[in-house]
Structures are given as structure tokens and as C-alpha cells.
Design brief:
This protein is of the alpha/beta class. Helix 3 (about 75-100) runs antiparallel to helix 4 and helix 10 (about 295-305) runs parallel beside helix 11 (about 320-330).
């Protein structure tokens, strides 16, 4: 016999005796708590009926499965079952006794039901109560984590119960914080509500707290951001309950709390986009994504979710391509997906891809983006970024592609490094192609290729005809630093903090604009929807963030104190780096789109024919690895001023 079956058998025996004792006590209570005063006939009726009644009670209890519950986890559900079983058996006893003519005082049945309920329920919940007391006594000196719970609503109370029942977490809630003044100074399960959000820092010091759990899923983004900013001024580790979904589904527990991410502290609301237009734009289309790094991978995910006819991933780095390929195949088994390894610098390869797949929309994310590395290898920046864009854009145009979206950067604005200057050249290529197509002169665009095989292909009658009929809409999307992307400062800071520091910041005054990967991809997808040709789409990214402040916030979010637990070292600006990035050149100006946070930069005029001729010389110089590449780029990009 299993242990739980032995326990259940003992509980059956106890219940039987408890029912006998309950109704004997009721009879005793009815006659002034004196056995001598009990009328003999009532005692005889009790002895005739109670043993059968007790047996019936055992059967009813069994039907209610009261012998299969795990009573250390007894809850409201078990309480209801005990109440129902007791009332049903008590009423049945009363009815049967009266039908049989065995009259007993009414108080006998009333007190009997009450005593039976107390005795049968008490033994079941006493086990949990003893465990609770023992846990509290044993854990008084062992608790390592003192938690402040922000939010004394339903979610906060669920978190409190979860912490109290799971002692292995070694945590205890020291107080609640809630903005409702009606709750201040009162207790929730013995835990005081200390005050509103302005009391968080005071509470952290008073209770020596080292964790803060934010359990306010219904709060507005502004309120959450303000509370997070206040919490960030403590030395506590901060955890957050993501949203209302967990409350609706009942999934509110410590395990559902997430570490507060640095993007939660951005100085603006997340961009909300109407993706219905994106859905219509992508559904049933053949889409090509070049470069499947952090941005390209997220693009691929969101495109795959919008039912494209065919999705083609193109990248030179096989590891990135393999990872996103496996992810998409698992999540979208019916997706028509092809993953191709190749370089956008290889005109033969890129022409073959367009010839084989005939993509309707191209998202061109392939590029070298690391500023200091490109400063050391400027010819590679030109080969990959500039010529890679040119070759891909040309292939898209001659193969009848509908839209070509270039992924650009705010570093293209008044660039001080070759990477930013190369991306500005890419934008100028897009603008030049768009203008030539609008003029009906796409055939005047030079065929800048390094492979004779490609030249043979593009001089065919088929290509000549395609150039005359070219209608591809070329646009660029410009945005700032993407949180968590490859090469972003965020992963570097996280790694340095995990290693115990120091955290390296180039300059105490350096600032950057930041956005999340999801926001960047939403903008890129919308650009494809809004595209008319030649636009540079710009995101209003709110106020810029000081990198020094960012580093200090990340240290605090990890539960450490800047300059005390984790040192911050200033290393000086890197080659080509500037203190601030700009979203637009002063001459460009802005035009609105359907989304208030997305704008269009008016293109700076330049001599397109001269520019296209200059690119020919730049191509030759890049492939000859000329040492004066930066000077050559500066002659073409007037806003480029090398640091």
C-alpha cells in the first residue's frame, strides 16, 4: 500500500470517529453540556442512527474525492468540497430521521453539522497550517532576499502568495508600494502597504531590500517608465510582470517575472504601427532579405508571419543564415523558404538569385556596420556597402522588382567615419536610381560590374527592354542604434557586468538615439508600404540617451552600484566616432507620413550623372585597395568630414 493510501485510510477512520463525536457533542451541548441531563430516548435514537450515518458520510466524502486531495496544498476548492459534503450529509440525516419517525431536537442537527464541519475540516487544514508556521519559524534568519512589491492589486497579491508558498526561493516580501492612498498603512496578509511610488527609495533603505518586483500589468507606459526610473535609483534588482496576459490566464508567479530591460527605460513610448497595410503589402509576394544579422533576422520573422508567397534569405555568413533558417522552418513549416549563401559583392551570384526567384520586394540589410573596423579597412566598406548595394539595386531594377528598401543609419548624416559615409553613398545610389527611373532613363545608369560574365548577361536584349520599362521604387530607412543588435553596446555592457566589470564607456558625454529591433523592423516594413520612390524614411526616436547614463542604468538593473560594485572606465572616442549622431542633415527637412513618429527626409539635390560617373572610379579604386579611399569618398560625399 502506498503512503498516501495509508494516510487516506487513517483519515477515513478519523472522519468516522469525528462524525460520531460531533453529534454526541451536539446532544451534550443541547442539554446544557451535561450528560446526566440527556433524555434516555434521545440517547437511544442517537445510538441507533449515528453509526449508519457516519458510514454514509464516509461514502459521500469519498464521492467528493476528499480522500485523494494533497492537503499540504489545500485551497479554496477543498474548502468548498468539505462544506458541500457536510451540508448534504447533515440535511440528509435530518430528512431521513424525520421520515423514519426518529424525532430529535432541531438543535441536535444544527450543532451536529457545525461540529462535524469543524472536526473534518480542521484536521485537513491543520497540516498546511503547521507547515506554514514551521516554515515561518525556520526561515526567519535564513531569508536572503527582501522584496518590495510595487502594486497591491490582484497581481501583487498573487506574487505574495507565491513567494510565501515557495520557500525554496529564499525570499520574503517586506512591504507593498501602491499609489492608492486608501491602502496606505494597511496590511495585506501581514505585509504593510508602505506608501506610493515616491516612497520606493525610502522603503528600500528602511527594509534593506535587495529586490523590487513590479506587479502592475495594467499601468500605462508612462507610469511604468516613471516607476522604473525611481526603482533604478535604488541598488535593488528589478523584476517586472510583463502584462495583462498573465493576469487573465492566471499565470502570475515569481517565475513569470522578467528582468527589467534597458529598453523599458527609453524616453518615449514604443512605436505602434498599423500592420494591416504591411500584411497586404507582403501577402502573396516573393520577398528577398539580404543580410540576416539581427535586423535581417527580425525582418525575416515578421515577413514570414505575413504569408509571403516565397521568402529568400541571402547572406555570406552561414551561421546566421542557418540559425534563422532552422527557426523559421520550425515555426512556419508551410513557409516556402530558400536560404542562399553568397555575397552582394558578387554580381554574378546576385544576378543569378534575381533571375531564379524574381523577387517582388527586396529588403537590403547586408552591410559592414562596425565603425572602428571599417576605419581600418575603408576599401572593404566601399566594396561591401556601396558596391554591394549598387549591384543588388541594379539586379532588382532589371528584373522588374517592385520595391527595394535600403537599411540605412543615422551615421550617414554628416558622417565622421567611413562606415557612415559609405551608407550615405548607398542612400545617394537609391536616390539616383529612383530619379533615373522617374525620368524614364534607367538605361543611362552605368553597369558597374567586375565580372565579364555578368556584362554579357546585362547587355542582352531582354535586359535592355527591362531597363526601358523599369518601375522599381527605391527607398531608404534611416534609424539609430538598435538595442541588442550585433555590435550594439548593450550586449557588450551586459558581458562586462557579468564578468564583474569594469564597464568601458568611450566618453562621459557621448550620446546616441536608441530603438528596439521590433520598432526598427516595423519602420522598415512600413517604408516598403509607403514607398513612392526616392524617399529616406526617418524615425522620431525621442530624446537621445547618454551612453554613460545607459551604462549606469544597466549596472543598477543588475543589482549593483556604479563605481562601487562595478567600475566605469572612460577609454576615449574610437577612430571615426563622434559624440552625437543626427537623424537628418539640416538641409533635408521633414515631411509627415500616416504615422506621426515616421517622417520622410526631403532629398538633398546633387548632380546624379556626375555622381554615377564618380562611382565608377570609386569602384576601381576600392578593388585596387587604394590607400586614399577616405579622401576619394570625401570628394563625392560633401558632408563627410573624417574625424
Amino acid at each position: 500500500m502506498k503512503h498516501w493510501q495509508v494516510v487516506s485510510l487513517m483519515l477515513v477512520i478519523y472522519d468516522y470517529i469525528a462524525v460520531l463525536a460531533a453529534y454526541l457533542a451536539a446532544l451534550w451541548f443541547r442539554f446544557d453540556c451535561s450528560f446526566n441531563k440527556i433524555d434516555r430516548k434521545y440517547l437511544d435514537i442517537y445510538l441507533k442512527s449515528v453509526f449508519i450515518y457516519a458510514a454514509v458520510c464516509i461514502v459521500i466524502f469519498a464521492l467528493f474525492k476528499l480522500y485523494k486531495s494533497i492537503w499540504r496544498f489545500a485551497s479554496y476548492f477543498e474548502l468548498i468540497k468539505v462544506i458541500l459534503a457536510t451540508v448534504i450529509t447533515g440535511l440528509g440525516y435530518f430528512i431521513v430521521m424525520n421520515i423514519a419517525g426518529l424525532r430529535m431536537p432541531m438543535s441536535y442537527f444544527m450543532f451536529g453539522i457545525v461540529f462535524q464541519f469543524i472536526l473534518t475540516l480542521g484536521v485537513r487544514f491543520s497540516y498546511r497550517f503547521i507547515l506554514l508556521l514551521r516554515g515561518r519559524n525556520n526561515g526567519k534568519e535564513e531569508i536572503k532576499n527582501k522584496v518590495i512589491l510595487v502594486g497591491a492589486g490582484s497581481a501583487g497579491q498573487m506574487i505574495l502568495r507565491d513567494i510565501k508558498s515557495a520557500k525554496e526561493t529564499n525570499e520574503a516580501v517586506c512591504c507593498f508600494i501602491d499609489d492608492n492612498p486608501n491602502k496606505w498603512g494597511r496590511l495585506i496578509d501581514g505585509v504593510p502597504v508602505y506608501g506610493d511610488r515616491n516612497k520606493i527609495i525610502e522603503a528600500a533603505d528602511k527594509f534593506n531590500a535587495n529586490k523590487i518586483y513590479i506587479a502592475i500589468p495594467s499601468a500605462s507606459p508612462e507610469d511604468k517608465r516613471e516607476i522604473l526610473s525611481i526603482c533604478n535609483n535604488t541598488s535593488c534588482e528589478i523584476m517586472n510582470l510583463p502584462g495583462m496576459y498573465q493576469l487573465y490566464t492566471g499565470e502570475v508567479s515569481v517565475s513569470k517575472m522578467k528582468r527589467v530591460q534597458i529598453e523599458d527605460l527609453l524616453g518615449r513610448d514604443p512605436i505602434k504601427t498599423d500592420l494591416s497595410a504591411v500584411y497586404e503589402n507582403l501577402k502573396g509576394k516573393v520577398v528577398l532579405v539580404t543580410g540576416v544579422g539581427s535586423i535581417g533576422s527580425e525582418l525575416s520573422r515578421q515577413i514570414a508571419a505575413h504569408e509571403p508567397k516565397h521568402l529568400i534569405l541571402f547572406d555570406i555568413y552561414e551561421n546566421n543564415a542557418y540559425d534563422i533558417q532552422q527557426e523559421l522552418r520550425k515555426k512556419y513549416p508551410d513557409l516556402n523558404l530558400d536560404t542562399i549563401i553568397g555575397s552582394v559583392r558578387d554580381s554574378r551570384k546576385i544576378f543569378q538569385v534575381f533571375e531564379d526567384y524574381k523577387p517582388d520586394i527586396v529588403y537590403h540589410a547586408a552591410a559592414h556596420k562596425h565603425v572602428p573596423l571599417m576605419e581600418d579597412s575603408p576599401c572593404e566598406a566601399v566594396k561591401n556597402n556601396v558596391m554591394g548595394t549598387y549591384k543588388t539595386a541594379y539586379a532588382a531594377m532589371v528584373h522588374g522588382c517592385e520595391k527595394f528598401v535600403l537599411i540605412s543609419t543615422d551615421k550617414a548624416v554628416n558622417p565622421t567615419n567611413i562606415m557612415g559615409a559609405s551608407k550615405r553613398l548607398c542612400e545617394m545610389i537609391i536616390q539616383a536610381f529612383a530619379e533615373k527611373i522617374k525620368e524614364g532613363k534607367a538605361n543611362e545608369i552605368p553597369q558597374l560590374f567586375t565580372h565579364s560574365v555578368t556584362k554579357d548577361i546585362i547587355e542582352s536584349d531582354k535586359i535592355e527592354k527591362a531597363l526601358k520599362e523599369a518601375k522599381t521604387k527605391f527607398v531608404a530607412v534611416r534609424f539609430g542604434n538598435v538595442l541588442g543588435s550585433n555590435g550594439s553596446v548593450i550586449p557588450l555592457f551586459k558581458k562586462q557586468i557579468e564578468e564583474g566589470g569594469p564597464v568601458t564607456v568611450t566618453h562621459p558625454d557621448i550620446i546616441r538615439y536608441f530603438m528596439t529591433i521590433a520598432e526598427a523592423v516595423s519602420l522598415i516594413l512600413l517604408a516598403g508600404t509607403y514607398a513612392n520612390g526616392g524617399e529616406i524614411f526617418v524615425l522620431d526616436m525621442g530624446e537621445p540617451v547618454k551612453i554613460d547614463t545607459l551604462a549606469r542604468n544597466m549596472i543598477r538593473l543588475s543589482g549593483f552600484k556604479p563605481d562601487i560594485d562595478i567600475k566605469i572606465i572612460y577609454t576615449g572616442l574610437r577612430p571615426g566616432e563622434k559624440l552625437y549622431e543626427e537623424k537628418l542633415m539640416a538641409e533635408e527637412g521633414l515631411k509627415k507620413t500616416l504615422n506621426d513618429l515616421i517622417h520622410i527626409g526631403c532629398p538633398i539635390p546633387f548632380d546624379i550623372n556626375e555622381f554615377l560617373q564618380q562611382l565608377d572610379g570609386l569602384l576601381e579604386a576600392a578593388y585596387k585597395n587604394k590607400v586614399d579611399m577616405k579622401e576619394r569618398v570625401q570628394e563625392i560625399v560633401s558632408t563627410y568630414h573624417p574625424a
